[in-house]
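User: Predict the structure for this protein chain, please.
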Amino acid sequence: MQMSSTSFLCLCVLGLLLMTAACTQSEPGIPASTPGSPEPNYTSNETLVAFVESAVAYAHANGKEKALAEFSDPNGTFVQGELYIYAYDFNNTTLAHPFDPDKIGVSRMDELDAFGNPYTRQFIDAATNGSGFVRFYYINPAHNRTVESKLGYVMRVDEDWWLGSGIYTGPADPVTENSHTEG
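Assistant: Here is the predicted structure, written as structure tokens:
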């Protein structure tokens, strides 16, 4: 049986369409945008780490008092989109927070996340080791105050205090054990 040139051309076009469709699928775990919707804005782990590292460098260069004032300023240089710096001592007493000034001077040592995990103690553990990531579950004020998964990164400034920041990573699964990942 002979294939006509039109049939052959149709088969080639169909094959090309199938290959192209497979190449345009969204990555697993990353939401695909719909036409007319704004592109999602994701902050990478590398950007989070670099942000905290730059804040630690600022603290070293400018001193604790000036740094804490800058970190507490909601219009300061360490508030960038979803990223902002918070500062704590090793008793988990808040030293700076741009959006929750009522917490400054308050120990958050026994604070639990939305699923009852002692995430603030894990911040201390990570900062004591120099730096690290902590997964916790927190209310996202930008998404109707829904509980979402959040990845925090903390870094020791010196023996007295540490800095951190975090990124929301999506809907929270009800987990009762917090995961601590090395970073």
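Strands lie at 79-80, 83-84, 86-89, 94-96, 131-140, 146-156, 161-171, 180-181.
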